[in-house]
Amino acid sequence: MYKQRCWDYFLFRPISCNKEKLKKVIRGKSILITGASSGVGKELAYELADVDCHLVLVARRGDELAKIKKTIETKNARVSVFQADLRDATEMENFLSFLHGLPHGLDVVVNNAGLSIHRSINDSLNRYHDFTRTMAINYFAPVQLLLSVTPHLQRNKGHIINVSTINARLAPVPYFAAYQASKSAFDVWLRSTAPELHAQGVSTTSVYLPLIKTPMIEPTATYRNLPAMSPGYVARIICKSMYTKKKTYQPWWFIFGQIASIFLSNFSGVSTKKRGKGR
């Protein structure tokens, strides 16, 4: 445990968030957080609870959203919650209708909802639905959402913050085909549309993150002892991006990870070829 804490401290240097700058930028604003019932979304909502803003929280688990709302409403933020599975066409349409009914629209969209799958290709042969469901929440849902609310963001000179993964910028790795492909798809979509959005006064931030200690990693036993960011740490990164409006955030060591991933990918390819020749 001590060794793990040392690694966490080395890889994830302390990050500070200037609460006064944050309050100045988002006071009176409407902020949408998807995937808000647990993990990063939940911690982000709590980080913003002391600010006089309007938090719009959406997730599948309405009971958890209700608990978060009850806690936050004892503080300064106003909270609206909406239970919806954004992969479901009807529930998405109902949610979009709700958003368009907001008096002043949206100012900030934090795309945080997501699904990760760790599975080999051989174990996926009869599981095509793994690919459709990861694309549904990691790509199609945020695209549909942003296409619908972009007029709000243009009018309010808003901000889109995408909670992404370093895997989207690394060489492809085995066992993560469904996850990496879907997260990369939305990453490319946002970076492709960013110049147009910027020209219309809409800021975009892509937050590239490594492993995070959330319920999503629990099914994979090997992750439990690996260095990982805490949801609260990530929430502070997102809060800071709300006032700095930097285009990207990535860990300080990310460049070394990119180099290593390319090397390992090439090495894996060479190893595979050698094994093939020996047969």
From TrEMBL:
Residue ranges occupied by any Ketoreductase domain in the UniProt entry: 29-215
Pfam families reported in the protein's UniProt record: adh_short
Signal peptide positions (record): none
Keywords tagged on the record: Membrane, Oxidoreductase, Transmembrane, Transmembrane helix
Coiled coil: none
Annotated InterPro entries: KR_dom (IPR057326), NAD(P)-bd_dom_sf (IPR036291), SDR_fam (IPR002347)
TM spans (from-to): 252-270
Keyword Transmembrane helix belongs to the record: yes
Source organism superkingdom: Bacteria
Family statement drawn from the similarity comment of this UniProt entry: Belongs to the short-chain dehydrogenases/reductases (SDR) family.
PANTHER family associated with the record: DEHYDROGENASE/REDUCTASE SDR FAMILY MEMBER 7B, DEHYDROGENASE_REDUCTASE SDR FAMILY MEMBER 7B
The protein's name: SDR family NAD(P)-dependent oxidoreductase
Species annotation: Alkalihalobacterium chitinilyticum
Upper lineage: Bacteria, Bacillati, Bacillota, Bacilli, Bacillales
